[in-house]
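Q: Given only this backbone (460 positions), what sequence would you predict?
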């Protein structure tokens, strides 16, 4: 994996908002678009303002003065808009609902600096613009080792073999008849935040942390299906999960995890069938474990008496340690958090009130607390956790903050129910060095410059 910052999003290239944009709504706001789109957004705003001026309208400039009433001369409130008087669209215009056309900047994106190898690709989730904890299915990050498929569910089969009395083949209908559970869990690629190991400050949170999503998954606990096949739980302490795409995606899952009932054969995601990009019609859900074990297009489960040592667990997804040896089978995603707004590529347009918000998660349980610092880690304040806090799911945190217009460094630090505290870069690198790709859960820092622009920086 190589990474270069493309000139388009290079650090230091963020621009301050044009003067006439400041004071929109009379409150400071954080621009929701990520950096490459931000310019477009400003450009369009300028064009809109220019054409409004040409038409003799007295709109936007009046909003610049903080003591002016927002309604003062604002045609957007004084005039009846067309949509209050005309006919709206019929329901048939949108049989499967789509986001507003005004939200078209909100997209998962491939990193401009990551080299794509054939169909092995990654798209990153736009965390900076999402609310709450559920990732809309169309914005779920994607990681395909060999491209994605839209598989006919009628032709899809799941084989269970190995240390079982009755090897069996299931259709999707067979699985849909069984008792199901629905649970909210995060999925994070083990390589998430991987570029940051080597001090490369990727510009936006979409690219630093966007291989992360959270959904409600519906399916059958794998243990139920294994019991149905007469699994030998004495000898069969490991399971091999195999995907039905060309990547030969195979991973070993320890039987303890499966016996806990947490591992699911999932077909549902956020109330509908899985999206093709996320493994339609069947994927493994392995809560707390790195994304690679969540095998998509799941086609076969084999029960065995030892780890399978497949390519994706002996050569790939291993952690290079400072002594030059590789650490294998580190699959749990440790406790981690990130401030999603304000975050890199956004801009604070004037001083005043902001809601600092972000996400926290732990592969070992639930989030107990999140602390936020605005001075680079000297002082910390407890953030408010949005409840109910879910097990092995994203947790949203918020902290009200008044920006005084001076440079600041914003950080978040999560603590999970095992009392593990998310480490600083210094602490993490002491143990792990800096040559790794996987399992970077260090505290992320966003520097706010006096001009309001927000940048990725490495602190401590
Ligand atoms: N069959 C198959 N399963 C797969 C993969 C794949 O390429 N093929 N990628 C894995 C990796 S590395 C990750 S991080 C997750 C990504 O899941 P998503 O694309 O639904 O976000 O799927 C995992 N399961
Ligand atoms: Mo991954």
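A: Predicted residues:
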């Amino acid at each position: 994996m190589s990474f270069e910052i493309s000139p388009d999003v290079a650090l230091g290239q963020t621009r301050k908002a044009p003067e006439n944009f400041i004071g929109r709504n009379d409150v400071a706001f954080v621009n929701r678009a990520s950096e490459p789109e931000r310019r477009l957004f400003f450009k369009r705003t300028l064009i809109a303002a220019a054409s409004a001026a040409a038409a003799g309208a007295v709109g936007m400039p009046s909003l610049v003065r903080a003591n002016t009433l927002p309604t003062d001369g604002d045609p957007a409130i004084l005039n009846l808009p067309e949509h209050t008087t005309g006919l709206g669209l019929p329901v048939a215009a949108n049989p499967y609902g789509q986001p507003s056309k005004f939200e078209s900047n909100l997209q998962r994106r491939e990193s401009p600096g990551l080299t794509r190898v054939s169909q092995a690709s990654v798209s990153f989730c736009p965390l900076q613009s999402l609310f709450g904890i559920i990732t809309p299915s169309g914005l779920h990050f994607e990681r395909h080792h060999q491209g994605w498929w839209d598989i006919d569910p009628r032709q899809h089969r799941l084989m269970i073999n190995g240390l079982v009395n009755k090897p069996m083949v299931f259709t999707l209908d067979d699985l849909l008849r069984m008792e199901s559970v629905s649970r909210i869990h995060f999925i994070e690629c083990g390589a998430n935040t991987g570029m940051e190991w080597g001090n490369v400050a990727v510009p936006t949170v979409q690219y630093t942390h966007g291989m992360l999503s959270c959904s409600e998954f519906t399916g059958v606990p794998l243990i139920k299906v294994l019991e149905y096949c007469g699994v030998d739980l004495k000898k069969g302490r490991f399971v091999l999960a195999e995907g039905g795409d060309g990547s030969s995606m195979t991973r070993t899952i320890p039987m303890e995890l499966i016996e806990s009932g947490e591992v699911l054969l999932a077909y549902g995601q956020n109330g509908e069938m899985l999206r093709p990009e996320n493994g339609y019609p069947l994927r493994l859900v392995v809560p707390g474990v790195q994304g690679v074990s969540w095998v998509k297009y799941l086609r076969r489960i084999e029960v065995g008496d030892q780890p399978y040592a497949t390519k994706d667990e002996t050569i790939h997804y291993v952690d290079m340690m400072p002594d030059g040896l590789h650490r294998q089978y580190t699959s749990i995603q440790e406790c981690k958090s990130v401030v999603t707004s304000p975050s890199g590529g956004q801009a604070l347009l004037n001083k005043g009130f902001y809601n600092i918000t972000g996400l926290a998660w732990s592969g070992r349980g639930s989030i107990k607390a999140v602390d936020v610092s605005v001075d680079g880690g000297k002082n910390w304040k407890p953030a408010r956790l949005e409840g109910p806090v879910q097990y092995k799911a994203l947790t949203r945190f918020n902290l009200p903050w008044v920006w005084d217009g001076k440079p600041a460094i914003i950080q978040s630090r999560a603590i999970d129910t095992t009392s593990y505290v998310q480490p600083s870069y210094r602490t993490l690198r002491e143990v792990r060095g800096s040559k790794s790709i996987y399992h970077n859960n260090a505290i992320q820092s966003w520097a706010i410059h006096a001009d309001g622009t927000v940048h990725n920086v490495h602190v401590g």
